[in-house]
Amino acid sequence: MREVEEMVCFDLYAASRAMTGLYRPLLDPLGLTYPQYLVLLSLPEEGSCTVGELAERLDLDHGTTSPLLRRMETAGLLVRRRAAHDERVVEVGLTPAGRATRARLDDVQCAVQDAVGMRAADLADLQDSLKTLTSRVRDLAEGRER
Question: What domains can be seen in the chain, in order of their start residue?
Fold first, then answer.
């Protein structure tokens, strides 16, 4: 049996935890968790999107998305409302406080990029590899062969 340190799944897990840990001290002063940070980045600056669109963009299920958005709405960062064209659809948009917080997120991303210390080309290659891996694993989980 292979040692855990030799397994790709462990390296992905460790990298994910390390990255989330890197964001924590940058997001704490803004009152944000990492998932809330991703929501703010994913919502349109003006206007709205549906909860379903947001969940798909962030690869979240409904059971995770609803409580996350509820907490952010309570914090005054976003507003949820039923769509006029179909009351089954819930739309999400930023409040003025959400837009102000979002405007401060560029500094967070710059600080993370500086801290990681990798060349932009290397990060782009890593991201491409991760997207390919994710796609292949999802296809396997859904019974599609490559």
Answer: 1-30+104-146 (no CATH), 33-96 (1.10.10.10)
SS3 118: coil
Give the tokens for residue 51. 């909860």
Q: What is the pLDDT of residues 34-76, one digit of tens each?
A: 999 999 999 998 889 999 999 999 999 888 999 999 999 999 9
Kindly report whether the global pTM for this prediction surpasses the value 0.90: no
How many Å apart are CA 57 and CA 4, to the nearest integer?
A: 31
Q: Is 36 exposed, middle or buried (0-12, 13-18, 19+ CB in 10 A)?
A: buried
20 Cβ partners below 8 Å, 6+ apart?
34
